[in-house]
Specification:
15% of the residues lie in helices and 43% in strands. By secondary structure, it is mainly β. The protein has 5 domains: 118 residues, Sandwich (Immunoglobulin-like), CATH 2.60.40.10; 90 residues, Immunoglobulins (Immunoglobulin-like, Sandwich), CATH 2.60.40.10; 86 residues, Immunoglobulin-like (Sandwich); 54 residues; 59 residues, no CATH class. The strands form 9 sheets. Strands 2, 4, 5, 10, 11 and 12 form a 6-stranded mixed β-sheet that branches. Strand 27 and strand 28 form a beta hairpin. The longest helix has 48 residues. The radius of gyration is 58 Å and the shape is elongated. The termini are far apart.
């Protein structure tokens, strides 16, 4: 009975201690980037000694008060702890880890020891994300040139961290207006892509892009290329489809090759004598100087060669005989004839249009302009002419002349007029009419002299 009683008493003491020790603030979950500083805190409602406080990670004690335990993985690290009293006798306990490592991730709790009984706060999770090393991604070099038909292997390597990085391999071709093609997109490293090289891969650039969910601002690239693919020539022969007898025929051997074509060779079946055709200095353009009807069905071959290999292409020519009066015409002449007919029709239509416009112009002149002009001329009357006066006067300047008697003065004014003939056919004759006026001014107001 005593044993049960002691156990009961111990249980009551434990309950009492747990009720007495209460955490006001618990540690919070934190997500951080490796290399940054992390701080976790807890606050108790009671005042407790420093030695009774500790931080626990994944069930292992890291600290005792302000002391870092030597058995702790954070020993000899840039770590700081501290305690302080807040208002109302609350205890503040802090753990600060500078330059946090990925290995510091785990479950943390704040603990208090009271008489051998440990009371813990709520658990908090610390998640430390890693960033890839600046040297990544790494693109393995490729060896140029690459012969067509050979396998090319691309390898892009990233950093192995948590959370895993993402690698994307893309392809684009220089001087080709096409969208970028995504070849691979994975969360593993390295990523490897292989393919058989062909002419379309020439000048291709492959890009490996690295991103990480830990930080959206991290975006890095490395590249392969441009790829230099060597391939045999691709050939086409440009020529007229139909040739008239007696004319010259021109053939151009167009090629696309890497490296460039070094030799061109022309062949004929049946063979042509060397004096019947001519080849330019490069060998790419050949002319048959004078085609005859016997050349109808002649096979013309062009062979182009570079360091990779050689390719032959051929065409068959069609010749039309113009000496026997054949009505058959080459396509080009038929097109010209059609164009001539169209031009002739256009000319005829233009002439008719000009004639119609001319007739309309004459109708407008005779029906509108001439009657209007006649009406304007005939509607004028003599009464509208402004009559000219027979006589008009033009006043002249007034002059004041001194008189012998200083007491008096004479104001002299002279005016004249001109007779204007009313008959327009008579030469203009002018008769001057003048009058003199004198005003004598003695002591009286005014006197007029005759």
């Amino acid at each position: 009975m005593r044993m049960y009683f002691l156990r009961y008493v111990s249980f009551l003491n434990l309950v009492t201690i747990m009720e007495a020790l209460e955490f006001r603030d618990h540690p919070q979950d934190i997500t951080a980037i490796e290399g940054t500083t992390v701080e976790m805190t807890c606050v108790l409602e009671q005042e407790v000694p420093d030695s009774s406080l500790s931080w626990i990670r994944n069930g292992n004690t890291l600290t005792e008060g302000r002391k870092i335990l030597e058995s702790s993985p954070i020993f000899n690290r840039d770590v700081d702890t501290g305690t302080s009293l807040l208002s109302r006798k609350s205890t503040y306990y802090r753990l600060e880890i500078r330059s946090v490592l990925y290995s510091d991730s785990g479950v943390y709790a704040c603990a208090v020891d009271q008489n051998g009984i440990e009371v813990k706060s709520e658990a908090a999770h610390l998640t430390v994300n890693q960033l890839p090393d600046p040297i990544y991604p790494i693109c393995d070099p490729i060896v140029n040139p690459v012969d067509e038909g050979y396998r090319v292997k691309l390898r892009c390597t990233g950093d192995v961290i948590e959370p895993p990085i993402k690698l994307k391999l893309s392809k684009c071709v220089m001087d080709v207006n096409t969208d970028t093609e995504v070849l691979l997109y994975r969360q593993t490293t390295p990523i490897i892509h292989s393919f058989i090289a062909n002419a379309d891969d020439n000048n291709a650039i492959f890009t490996c892009q690295l991103t990480t969910p830990a930080d959206d601002n991290v975006l890095r690239n490395c590249s392969f290329g441009p790829l230099n693919v060597w391939y045999k020539p691709n050939i086409t022969i440009q020529h007229a489809g139909t040739t008239l007898s007696g004319r010259e025929a021109i053939f151009i051997c167009q090629t696309n090759a890497n490296p460039p074509v070094t030799d061109f060779m022309w062949q004929f079946y049946p063979p042509l004598s060397i004096d019947r055709y001519d080849v330019d200095d490069i060998g790419q353009v050949m002319r048959i100087l004078r085609v005859n009807i016997d050349d109808n069905g002649l096979i013309v071959k062009c062979t182009a060669r570079n360091s990779v290999g050689q390719v032959t292409y051929h065409v068959t020519i069609e010749v039309i005989d113009t000496d026997n009066g054949s009505n058959e015409q080459p396509k080009t002449n038929a097109i010209e004839s059609t164009n001539d007919n169209i031009s002739e029709k256009k000319n005829v239509s233009l002439a008719v249009l000009l004639a119609v416009v001319s007739v309309l112009a004459l109708v407008i002149v005779f029906a509108i302009i001439i009657p209007a002009y006649y009406f304007c001329i005939c509607s004028k009357k003599e009464g509208n002419v402004v009559a000219q006066p027979d006589v008009y006067f033009e006043p002249q300047d007034r002059l004041t002349l001194p008189m012998p008697n200083k007491r008096h003065s004479v104001l002299w004014r002279r005016s004249f007029g001109a007779q204007v003939p009313t008959d327009r056919d008579v030469d203009a004759m002018y008769l001057e009419i003048q009058s003199d006026h004198y005003i004598f001014t003695p002591d009286s107001r005014c006197n007029t002299l005759p």
